[in-house]
């Protein structure tokens, strides 16, 4: 099933990306349910939307892998990191997004060095979207630090 021209490193990046994106779906979905139990309905919706965006990334990666002639395989899902406050959850999410950014940066650089224009563009697009997610999370964290912002910051139900 493997195409003769398929770069093994690109396939490795795709496999890791699929594992991380599916882990992100699990992370955001779990956190959405958790904050819903805290009564943070709008936050729950926002995290659910993030889970949907990450699932769309996973779907695109699956499509890319199939186009390259390999069966998608998410080798390892990470357990979701929870916290005792919204700020703790967002800090975990920001760190996770930065991990995706590092992976996509490395993959983009590899493809650029090896002259793989199509996969470089593919990884660059995902990189840009993850950079946007990380920026949104950083902004959200900063907003929570502002005086007068009231969010249930100490509730934990697990």
Describe the structure.
The chain has 4 helices and no strands. The chain is mainly α and 158 residues long. It has a single domain, classed as Ferritin, core subunit, four-helix bundle (Ferritin). α3 packs antiparallel against α4.
Name of the CATH first level:
Mainly Alpha
Mean pLDDT: 91
Instruction: Give the low-confidence spans.
Output: 153-158
| Fourth-level CATH superfamily | Ferritin, core subunit, four-helix bundle
Tell me how many strands there are.
0
Query: Major sheet, described briefly?
Result: none
Distance between the termini: 44 Å
Residue share in β-strands:
under 5%
* Fold-level CATH name: Ferritin
CATH architecture: Up-down Bundle
Whole-number count of domains: 1
Tell me the layout of helices and strands.
Blueprint: H1 8-37, H2 41-67, H3 86-114, H4 117-144
Helix pairs in contact: 1-2, 1-3, 3-4
Keywords:
158 residues, mainly alpha, 4 helices, elongated, disordered C terminus
């Amino acid at each position: 099933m493997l195409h003769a021209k398929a770069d093994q490193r690109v396939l490795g990046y795709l496999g890791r990306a699929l594992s991380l994106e599916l882990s992100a779906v699990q992370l955001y979905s779990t956190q959405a349910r958790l904050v819903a139990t805290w009564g943070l309905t709008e936050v729950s919706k926002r995290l659910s939307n993030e889970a949907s965006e990450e699932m769309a990334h996973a779907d695109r990666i699956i499509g890319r892998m199939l186009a390259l002639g390999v069966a998608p395989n998410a080798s390892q899902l990470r357990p979701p990191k929870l916290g005792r406050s919204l700020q703790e959850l967002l800090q975990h999410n920001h760190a996770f997004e930065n991990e995706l950014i590092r992976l996509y940066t490395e993959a983009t650089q590899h493809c650029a060095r090896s002259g793989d224009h199509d996969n470089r563009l593919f990884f660059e697009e995902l990189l840009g979207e993850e950079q946007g997610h990380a920026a949104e999370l950083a902004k959200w964290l900063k907003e929570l630090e502002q005086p007068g912002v009231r969010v249930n910051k100490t509730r934990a139900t697990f």
